[in-house]
Amino acid sequence: MRSSHPEGPPARGRWRHIQLKRQGKTVTDFDLYDLLVNGDKSKDVQLLPGDVIFIPPAGPQVALTGSVRHPAIFELLDEQTTVKQLLSYAGGASTIASDARISVR
């Protein structure tokens, strides 16, 4: 699969459930946020010839804007994703942020 986004999955691709398939079986299913935000390489697997990286369509998303360090649209892992986790993905509140007001769309 060719992507115009060498830094990650295409805009409509999933970041939270990327699968490495080998001989038709899923070897690992990993969350790119865990790697990029938390540095978690626990699901790191060596690629072998013939392996396929499968990127399914993106899941539900939330936009975080305003006084956060990295405003963006973030993909939810599941319905249990918290505002605290989303703020972590966005690098936290900026120094001018108000603790009394957060907007999530």
Verbal overview:
The chain is of the alpha+beta class and 105 residues long. 13% of the residues lie in helices and 21% in strands. It has a 3-stranded antiparallel beta sheet, with no helix packed on it. Strands 4-5 form a two-stranded antiparallel sheet. A hairpin with a 2-residue loop joins strand 1 (18-22) and strand 2 (25-30). The protein is elongated, with a radius of gyration of 16 Å. The model is unreliable at 1-6 (pLDDT under 50).
Describe how the helices and strands are arranged.
Layout: E1 18-22, E2 25-30, H1 32-38, E3 52-54, E4 61-64, E5 72-75, H2 83-89
Antiparallel strand pairs: 1-2, 1-3, 4-5
Q: Estimate the global geometry from the Cα principal axes.
A: elongated
- Name the strands of the widest sheet in spatial order: 2-1-3
State the oligomer.
Answer: single chain
What profile does the largest beta sheet have?
3 strands, antiparallel
Strand/helix succession: EEHEEEH
Keywords, please?
single chain, 105 residues, 3-stranded antiparallel sheet, two-stranded antiparallel sheet, 2 helices
Summarize the structure.
The protein has 105 residues and is an alpha+beta fold.
